[in-house]
Amino acid sequence: MFRSSDVHTVTEFSRKPAAHIKRLAESKRPELLTVNGKATLVVQDAAAYERMAELAEYAESLQNIRRALSEQGRPLAEFAAEFEAKHGIAR
Q: Do 62 and 78 share a domain, yes or no?
């Protein structure tokens, strides 16, 4: 997910924040900030974050739908047989 060009130290970020903000806005790619060589923070521009949050919310709603269907649903063949019998439809 992160390219080597997306990894920077917190010190580097704090020394030249305008350059980082410009790069974030142009690339729409997040930056991984490190402290003592360890990943510590992820920084990204607001539009990219909003898009990521929307996608996460959409994925969560799909998971909820799948869960509800698996708990409350029934096989299509069973439903079709009941529907056909109820409405007098011959196969």
A: yes
- Specify the number of domains making up the chain: 2
72, 58: one domain: yes
Stated pTM of the model: 0.63
φ and ψ at residue 45, rounded to 5 degrees: -75, 160
Closest CA to 43 of 64, 81, 12: 12
Starting at the edge strand found earlier in the chain, the sheet holding 38-43 runs 7-9, 31-35, 38-43
H-run or E-run covering 59: helix 46-72
pLDDT at residue 19, rounded to an integer: 95
Q: Rounded mean pLDDT of the chain?
A: 90
Contacts of 25 (CB under 8 A, 6+ apart): 45
Cα separation of the two ends of the chain: 53
Contact 10, 39 (CB under 8 A): no
